[in-house]
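INFO  loader      accepted 1 record
INFO  loader      residues=191
INFO  predictor   begin
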Amino acid sequence: TSTLYMLALTMTTSANAITLQYSMPLYVALISFLVFGVKPDRRQLIALPLLMAGMALCCLGKGVGSTPLPRQGLGNALALLSGLTFSLVFVASRMKGADPLEYTYLGICLTMLLSLGLPFDENVRWGAGAASDFLKVAAMGVSLGLGYLLLALGLKTASPTTAAILENLEAVLNPVLVFLFLGVVLGGRGV
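INFO  predictor   done
INFO  writer      dumping tokens
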């Protein structure tokens, strides 16, 4: 999930990447119904179409002053795929004998293994500024780890679909924070 999301970030806007990754409540509801026979409740049936409409508005609008990226379609597809893999985290929390803390830890370890190739990436800086970049990556790792820990604890009590819908607060806050700190503006329909 994290690796797909990070790859998506290199090809599409951060607003599109996070918005499309957070398509996962739709996948959670569908998989929960198909695998466990759990139908979404009335509140979830109201929230899910609103979620889809919001995603469409965010991704169809063009950011003010932005130009389409060369591989934006592929980036959007990777972000949707990361949403599918992210949904499995929520669905797995209801499987017999599953412990969200254990599989979250395993997922983070897998991401670390996949990241071992970063030193060989031509875009990784060595020399001046490298220490600063390393600290940024370490801070990102700590924040992701803490976020996944809190998510795993929440999955022990919330239904998968409810937890997935609540998780979408990040998708709402991400474009707002990107605008505040980086000045990237969503398209008119996305606002």
